[in-house]
Write a structure and sequence with these properties.
There is one protein chain. This protein starts with 7 loop residues before the first strand and ends with a helix. The chain has two domains: 175 residues, 3-Layer(aba) Sandwich (Rossmann fold), CATH 3.40.50.1820; 40 residues. It has 227 residues and is of the alpha/beta class. α4 runs antiparallel to α5. Strands 1-3-2-4-5-6-7 form a seven-stranded mixed sheet, with helices on both faces. The protein is globular and about 50 Å long. Helices cover 40% and strands 17% of the residues. The protein is built from eight helices and seven strands.
Length: 227
C-alpha cells in the first residue's frame, strides 16, 4: 500500500473519470474540466505524490510509483476501474497504469504525453536538462534544490516507454495534443499509431490546451467519452 494520502477533488455522479495533472502542477489545473465533465461523470482530480497538497512520502519519485499510487488510491475508495484523462506527466502515468493495471483501466485520454525525453521539442527539453543538472549541484545542501531536481528528474529520467509496449493497450484511447505543443507532432502520432484503434486529435493551441482552449478540448473529450 501507498505511504501517502492523496489530496483530491471529487464532483458529480456516474462513471468515474480520474484526472491526472502534469509536472509541478496540481488538480486545480483541470478546473474547467471538473466543471464540464461533472455534469455527466463522477470526476476525481487528484494531486500526485509530492504535488499540490499531497505529501512527498518516502517511496520513489517516479512515474511508475505514481501509477502504483493511483492503483492504491482507487482500491481504498472502492473504484474497481475508471476512465483516465492524463495531461503531460499525467498522460505518462496513465500509459504506465494502463499497461500494468489493464483491469482497472477503462477509456484513456492521453493529452501531451511522451514516451521519452526525445519526444519533447529541444527548445523545451534543453532548459529542463540544464535545470536538472544545476539543481543537482545544490541538492545536498538545499531542500528546495533537491525538490526541484526531483521534479525535473521526472522529465529527464522518465518514463522511457517503448512504442512497441503500447500495442498491449486494448482500451479505447484518445491521443490529443496542441497544434503548437511542446511535444513533437510526430511523437504524438507515434503514440497514437502504437495503440490499437487509438483516435488522434490536435486542438488549436500549445501544450496547455485544456486550460487555455477548454471549450474545444472539452468538446472533443466528451465526444470520445460518450461514444
Amino acid at each position: 500500500m501507498t505511504d501517502i494520502t492523496h489530496y483530491y477533488t471529487e464532483r458529480g455522479e456516474g462513471e468515474p473519470l480520474i484526472l491526472l495533472h502534469g509536472n509541478g502542477e496540481d488538480s486545480s489545473y483541470f478546473s474547467a474540466q471538473i466543471t464540464a465533465f461533472s455534469a455527466c461523470r463522477r470526476v476525481i482530480a487528484l494531486d500526485t505524490r509530492g504535488h499540490g497538497k499531497t505529501p512527498r512520502g518516502e517511496k520513489p519519485f517516479t512515474i511508475r510509483q505514481f501509477a502504483d499510487d493511483l492503483a492504491d488510491f482507487m482500491a481504498v475508495r472502492g473504484i474497481a476501474a475508471a476512465d483516465l484523462l492524463g495531461f503531460s506527466d499525467g498522460a505518462n502515468i496513465a500509459m504506465v497504469f494502463a499497461l500494468k493495471y489493464p483491469e482497472k483501466t477503462k477509456k484513456l485520454i492521453l493529452n501531451g504525453g511522451n514516451l521519452d525525453p526525445k519526444g519533447v521539442k529541444k527548445r523545451a527539453q534543453i532548459p529542463i536538462e540544464w535545470g536538472f543538472r544545476f539543481a543537482g549541484l545544490f541538492a545536498s545542501k538545499k531542500e528546495t534544490a533537491a525538490a526541484k531536481r526531483e521534479l525535473l528528474g521526472l522529465m529527464v529520467n522518465d518514463p522511457f516507454i517503448e512504442a512497441a509496449e503500447l500495442a498491449a493497450i486494448k482500451k479505447k484511447t484518445l491521443v490529443i495534443a496542441g497544434t503548437r505543443d511542446l511535444i513533437k507532432a510526430e511523437h504524438t502520432r507515434l503514440i497514437a499509431g502504437s495503440i490499437p484503434g487509438a483516435e488522434l486529435a490536435f486542438i488549436k493551441g500549445g501544450h496547455f490546451i485544456a486550460a487555455k482552449n477548454p471549450d474545444a478540448f472539452n468538446a472533443r473529450v466528451l465526444n470520445f467519452l460518450n461514444q
